[in-house]
Amino acid sequence: MNRLPKVASVLILVFSISIVSLSINFANAESVPEWVKNTALWYGEGIVSEGEFLNMIKFLIENKVIVLDSIVEPIPQAVNSQIIIPNGNFDVTGAGFYSPLNLEIPAGTTVTWVNDDSVPHNIQSIDAKGKVIQLFNSPPLNTGDRFEFTFDDEGVYKYYCSFHPWRVGLVTVS
Ligand SMILES: [Cu+2]
């Protein structure tokens, strides 16, 4: 039996096991039983068969000494999105638009409005004609206050601030 290729393959295997343990999960060397180490050694010396050696690897995997992470596709999750009520939003003559003015999000997204202006504002959902509807309606938001609403259904949602009704924003849910 030619020993060299076998020794080399053991080295490669040990090396790949350490790569696995480094890159996938930490495997504690102290949790590798003595008989496993001996089996690896004896396999290198041609004393134990390849089958026994592979059984030993199987033992290490089954006993979570070698931890293989299963590849799991990330599940798309609803994201949180912010709409900033910027400084100067109250000023009818200024830019100060909601940022973004039309927020586009997937269904299930929680939207947070943040009042970055120096005066209070509120968020009132309105219908196509500009009439307030009870869908998402915030109390007055002081500077730094936040208001959240989760959009579960597709559609184009309009809102305004009842204190400054010239400020109209959109949330488009697809
Ligand atoms: Cu306002």
From TrEMBL:
Single annotated GO MF: copper ion binding
Q: What is this protein called?
A: Blue (Type1) copper domain-containing protein
Annotated keywords: Copper, Metal-binding
Q: What is the lineage of its organism?
A: Archaea, Nitrososphaerota, Nitrososphaeria, Nitrosopumilales, Nitrosopumilaceae
Q: Does the keyword Metal-binding apply?
A: yes
Q: Please state every residue range assigned to the domain named Blue (type 1) copper.
A: 98-173
Q: Which InterPro entries match?
A: BlueCu_1 (IPR000923), Cupredoxin (IPR008972), ET_Amicyanin (IPR052721)
Xref: PANTHER family: BLL1555 PROTEIN
